[in-house]
Here is the input.
Amino acid sequence: MPKVKEKNIAEKCYHCGEDCKNSGITSEEKNFCCEGCKAVYEILKGNDLCSYYTNNTKDKNSGTKLSDVKFENKFEYLKDNDIQNKLLDFRNKKISKVTFIIPSIHCSSCIWLLEKLYKLNPAIKSSIVDFPKKSVTIVFDHSAVSLKDVVVLISSIGYEPHISLEKNDDQIKKDEFKNKDLTLKIGIAGFCLGNIMLLSFPEYLSAGAEIDPQLKTIFNYLNILLSLPVFFYSASDYFISAWKAVKKNYINIDFPISLGLIALFVRSLYEIILFNNAGYIDSLAGLIFLLLLGKLFQSKTYQTLNFERDYKSYFPVSVTVLKNGNEISIPVAKLETGERILIRNGEIIPADSILFSGTANIDYSFVTGESMPEQKVLGEIIYAGGRHFGSAIELEVIKTVSQSYLTQLWNNDAFKKTQISNLQNLTDKVSIYFTVIILAIAFGSGLFWLREDVNKAIDAFTTVLIIACPCAFALTTPFAFGYTLRIFGRNKFYLKKGSVIEDLSNINTVVFDKTGTITDSGNISVKFFGSKLSHTELCLVKTLVRNSSHPLSRKIFESISAEDCSDDLEVTDFDESISDGISGIVSGIPVKVGNIKYLLKDLDCSYYERSHEFIKNPFSTNVFISINNFIKGYYSFRNIYRTGIENAVDDLSEDYDLAVITGDNNSERDNLLKIFGSSAKLLFNQKPQDKLNFIKDIQSDSAKVLMIGDGLNDAGALKQSEVGISVSENITNFLPSCDAIIDAGEISKIGKFIRFSKTTMNIIRASFVISFIYNIIGLYLAAQGTFSPLVAAVLMPFNSISIIVIIFLMTNFFAKRKGLI
Amino acid sequence: MSAIIILICVSLTVAIIFLIAFIWSVSTGQYKDKYTPSVRMLFEDNEIPEDLKNDNGDRKKIKKL
Here is the structure.
């Protein structure tokens, strides 16, 4: 290992802005943290693209740090035609079009550079970045450049795409179509509403005075013409949804709305054509416009977040198989047991397998949340899902991808259910009663008048339906949910959709995962126990561990703060015994670092007597130190609990049953008991499947479960629970499928969020009451015979808009009181 | 009175032109990404596109990492 002089000045990398530490890599008096960053700088400079560094307004060093992965081999599988066809959006004789998700897009310079790809390679015709989605769409001439070369190019300048063959594209396209459709519908409804109101103005102003009948006729028929696109296009979703519900034998909120809208339209046609009266066209267009606005407001989505991922989007697309000494790249789905695979630095183990050659350092942080890599030796089983660091290893596959320990979780029923919300939500429940009552009143009054006059009967029947149209009622939920979603989003708590708020408000049990959820996976405390080490002794240890790349060695190295160790300390007789420890003679003194067995190997018993007190703690990860054959003590590694977790638990324990469920051993039992108290259930050594079953068990015991987890091993539990929340340090990272994502720093607010979701539901209930009062007033007016187009034009939008205002004010007020805004 | 009718016709025609422009803008995907264009327009174009087409030949090769 090369020795590098420590520099005191922390230079920032000119490209990515990270500390250069002691890299010593410079080019034209600019410092770089690694060769990769320097290389990107040189590419940019060579192509006169240095304004990259000035385009970002926030900070200058805008590049993305490069990992030292070799890209050439990594994307070998992109030569495969099947894979290409799956990835490409479009291909004709001359050009291909492809869209990649690039997680590292983060600033305006990224947009600038990625849209300048044509300068780096003329065969690339254009590249368009969609910043909110973190995607880039590239059009290239495939006769001059291959898909693989394009990917290697963008990877080599620091924008490695996330490639997944999983087809959730359909879902994305559907959402996109829906969004576009809604925008169009609102635009058209708004356009027609404006013109209809203009044409209805004479009617509003005349208030009984006669208008020129010819003009009136023209205006009325123009109104009908303008109302056609609103009624048949903009409002079509409501009719379709109501019809679908009726076919399935239930009634949703869209049913009474559709009735009201149809009544408004038919009654208006009837009035205009037969009597040349004004009709209610303006109210009709206004209501549809407002309803659509509500939909738009609720459809707030977080485009960069993906709530539907399963292991396939995390696992690699292809894997290198060794056959007769040749390296062949095949899709992981085709991997069979018994095959020999090659895993390079930074790659993910796709299937359970046995280590055949090399030493594996497996990082399971995505799977378990545990950030400390595990070291594996020859013949050990390596479970799928871990990421390997170090030199390439050979493995023999013992289980196929879908049958592996981790991935078989996805064969569970919980994942097969297509998500039909079997929970009837509050609005639909209320709307059944509502519809029944309205229909009863409408038919009742119609029948009552039928004995005297058919016209009057039709009048009464339609008036009731129009007046009772639950538009204010239908606007309540979208606006309340939409606003609450935004308040949560401001607090870095992102919900998949509005209805999660309702589920969240019904929770009575909260289940936590431990590692990575309530502990901070990036933050590990290293503490030394035993006789205090002198400065020289610390230097000896530091010098020794510097020579090992084992993660624990690195942690010890970082934790020793002794600054002025002389660089002259020589290590001789260095020996690394895998998964046991390291030893060496540092400037003449024998030093050993490792587990207790390794240290005791050459020691005589008298030392053992003196050191046995250190061996008592069988749990938590301990690394022992011996200097001059005398055991000095041990370094203990443990995860630190996230700040604020105690407050969060205190806050929750008053109203909710709590449980902690973890795959780890029970070494932390005492600490957990301290935080969670004796009433909480603590379960240790739980497999992913056990976690799912535990949730199922308590659900059958009438628990409504909120699961908070982070890794792939929680995926089953997250899916099975009523609400599953993923905790993440960085929300663009991989996360298992869930209903909501919370930023790790905000986890202490979880109690507040649950309570606020209850407040939101109460606000909705209160608004329901208010809108019913409006309906009753309307019906009263109708019964008096004072219901005219003018009254309708004033009353109906007033209802809707006042409800929206009330919801905003109430939500805002309570959010302020709870400290959420 | 006929003046009003003519005016109404004119105003509707103008409004419909804008409606068509709106429908066109939605269908060409201008509402898909509402953020990136706002950044893109601030970049300076320090090259002339015509030049680009001509000097394809002597462009420096990109260094492979």
